[in-house]
Amino acid sequence: MARPHEQWHVQVETSPGDVLSTTLGTGLRIDLHTHSVVSDGTDRPEVLVRQARRHGLDVVALTDHDTYDGWDAAHEAAAEEGVELVPGVEISTHCQSYGVHLLAYHVDAGYRPLARELARIRLDRRDRLQRIATRLTQAGLPVELSEVLAHAKGASAVGRPHVADVMVAKGYVASRDEAFATWLSYGCVGYVEKYAPDIVDAIGWVHGAGGVAVLAHPWGRGSRRLFDRTMLTLLAEAGLDGVEVDHQDHDHAERAGLRELATELDLVVTGSSDYHGTGKNGHELGVNTTEPAEWERLLERVGQRTPHGTRRPGAEA
Ligand code: AMP
Ligand code: ZN
Ligand code: FE
Ligand code: FE
Questions:
Q1: CA end-to-end span of the chain, whole Å?
Q2: Which ligand does the CA of 101 lie closest to?
Q3: Do 162 and 150 form a contact (C-beta atoms < 8 A)?
Q4: pLDDT, tens only, 90-132
Q5: How far apart are CA 102 and CA 115, in angstroms?
Q6: Which ligand 1 atom is the nearest neighbour of the CA of 101?
Q7: pTM above 0.85, yes or no
């Protein structure tokens, strides 16, 4: 529900001479985690931005998996719609042996170490599709890589959801959810690991690129044991900026517990939809939002570090 807006304008220097201008205010509706067809969402980036406006959002981040390719189209639509578009990316990383998602905002797309790493992840995502297709075919569900790529319609980052879509189209399963639950999740016949960098390295690259790093859905899908107080403390010491607390994968008690831990560790608390269009149920735009004051804390950290991860001289902690 819309609340009366009290807005003000701030400018943050993201890198010397490069000023990010943004609107802040109480009552702003901010959603910091969404996916388009550029990865495994079902809306084109410009459609997603228009939908964001319709859902009453003032600020929306496009955070496709491992790619920046939706930014240009989203920026253009955002300018037309009067929505603030935050360029973001959800980076596939690993922490110990777990696959972990790291959200990054306002990274410089021209920063080579991060761009190169994302390209490496995308390449392995594609190779992995072949391995998944082979495994499913051997298990009696014939799937060809070419079919999956045709379904992915030129997505820059391909993944299991695209395989799931083919399985639905071929009548093997009724939905993406069933494909994951029965065939594609860890422990299932069609599960194949993908390449992902260590999360601490990824945090360093995000900072090198001038951005901020937020741990996505830390207690979703059984990863609560991994992200206990000790691990979150280690990541905070490694420079992690925030944690996504309000996410559909967290129940009420988990949100409360995680919020308390984040506050104790001085990590920024975010809330987001993780919208995938029709690709994921229950993740409608704006279903969770980020408090404007928390977003402001993140913005204050944007561009404050040198490419080596230390804070720029004169930048406030
Ligand atoms: P991948 O990137 O190939 O490892 O696939 C993981 C992605 O699949 C996640 O980021 C989600 O977007 C999506 N996903 C995971 N579980 C499900 C599910 N049960 N139904 C639909 N999408 C899912
Ligand atoms: Zn996804
Ligand atoms: Fe994720
Ligand atoms: Fe996501």
A1: 34
A2: 3
A3: no
A4: 999 999 989 999 999 999 999 999 999 999 999 999 999 999 9
A5: 15
A6: 10
A7: yes
